[in-house]
TrEMBL record, chains A, B:
This is MarR family transcriptional regulator. Coiled coil: none annotated. InterPro entries: HTH_MarR-typ (IPR000835), MarR/SlyA-like (IPR039422), Tscrpt_reg_MarR-type_CS (IPR023187), WH-like_DNA-bd_sf (IPR036388), WH_DNA-bd_sf (IPR036390). It comes from Glycomyces niveus. Pfam families: MarR_2. The keyword Nucleotidyltransferase does not apply. The keyword Hydrolase does not apply. The lineage of its organism: Bacteria, Bacillati, Actinomycetota, Actinomycetes, Glycomycetales. Keywords: DNA-binding, Transcription, Transcription regulation.
DNA sequence: TGACATCCAATGCGCGTGCATGTAAGGTTC
DNA sequence: GAACCTTACATGCACGCGCATTGGATGTCA
């Protein structure tokens, strides 16, 4: 079953690439143009909004967020810096472990996130519910 | 079926991200460390080796390659430049349309590709045959 | 207390990417 | 053949990423 596995695996990878590429490109484009948010930035907001419940003004440690994302420590650090500059998030030192940082959603951050959520959902539904919907190997935005 | 679709779609995306991330990171690492090839570079060689049959010394137009990859025109151009510098590929002008470039696999390129192929296959099999194999959200190389 | 390993986050650096643009070569129309 | 649009590829540029390193805070052990 060597050759057979070969073909299956290549086709499966190809399919994964297609879905990943189409979805993530459109996610990036839509989030960026409609809400001025990158994919990573949105994801951080998403995690924050879950972490303590949006009402509580989500709050989480950098390390915990990092563990939930496919992002290096340095990339997360910079993503948070961008979010902070945009006023969507606040860094707060942890009193019990001054190495660690807490991250908090600001009201503006929560608002931005809530606004972007439907966009996010719509793109996912479009590309993932009926996988054949985005069949062509559509490039990023061209 | 709103909420249900929501959950399904998020889980599916999450799963896709996991598989994509784990597979592509390991692909990148393995190809780079064992064969000094990036993922895009390998893919170009792969396409070339198919295009006219490896024995014929694969040959294809840039545009045709671009159409088969999830890569922008500029990124492909630079990837080919890297391959050319490494002596794995040759650019050749097309006599009938001097805008177009043909791309040819050199013997060294074919050799490198054949050497890397098993590595590529092994990674795909590892991550895609039994999807639960790489369950943890393993980061890139950490 | 002092020496050393470990952990968290920030930063310098290089790389590959996409977008926008530039350049050269068709193709079309008059 | 002149004016114009389109196509193929290369290149300037900015950006986000990962890796390696740094610096400060903790923990541990003698």
């Amino acid at each position: 079953m060597e050759a057979e596995t070969d073909v299956d695996v290549c086709a499966k990878w190809s399919e994964t690439l297609r879905v990943y590429h189409n979805t993530s490109c459109e996610l990036e484009n839509e989030l960026q143009s409609r809400h001025d948010l990158g994919r990573s930035e949105f994801e951080v907001l998403l995690i924050l909004s879950r972490e303590c419940g949006a009402a509580a003004g989500g709050k989480a440690k950098m390390k915990d967020i990092e563990a939930e994302m496919y992002l290096s420590q340095s990339a997360l650090s910079r993503t948070v810096t961008r979010l902070e500059k945009a006023g969507l998030v606040t860094r707060a030192a942890c009193d019990f472990d001054r190495r660690a940082n807490f991250l908090m959603l600001t009201p503006a951050g929560l608002e931005r996130f809530e606004a972007a959520k439907p966009t996010h959902r719509a793109v996912l539904v479009k590309h993932l519910v009926d996988t054949t919907a985005s069949q062509p190997a559509a490039a990023c935005s061209r």
